[in-house]
Design goal:
Pfam families: Bet_v_1 (PF00407). This is Bet v I/Major latex protein domain-containing protein. By secondary structure, the protein is an alpha+beta fold. It has one domain: Alpha-D-Glucose-1,6-Bisphosphate, Chain A, domain 4 (2-Layer Sandwich). Helix content is 23%, strand content 48%. The protein starts with a strand and ends with a helix.
Length: 95
């Protein structure tokens, strides 16, 4: 269960399951199975990929989703949350 506070100030809840763990390629895939996101999207999948080949590590977060209607906005507030979380983690590790 994941509790998020998106940049729009509203708390969001998402229950996720891990669909895939690929240790060799450093990929995690989560699928949302319950919660607020599924009120807006028919499906929502989050993929995390870590690239450690370069001098600096790189984490790529990808959202794959299907909107329930054309009126539904893209999940920009959720992406803002992920970006801010990543910045907080980086700040902590650089101390």
């Amino acid at each position: 269960m994941l509790l998020l506070k998106a940049s729009d100030g509203k708390a969001k809840v998402a229950k996720e399951v891990i669909d895939k763990v690929d240790e060799k390629n450093k990929i995690l895939i989560f699928r949302v199975v319950e919660g607020d996101l599924l009120e807006l999207y028919k499906s929502f999948v989050i993929t995390l990929h870590v690239d450690t080949k370069a001098a600096n590590n790189l984490v790529t977060c990808t959202f794959e989703y299907e909107k329930r209607s054309e009126d539904v906005e893209d999940p920009n507030s959720l992406m803002d949350f992920v970006v801010n979380l990543t910045k907080d983690i980086e700040t902590h590790h650089l101390k």
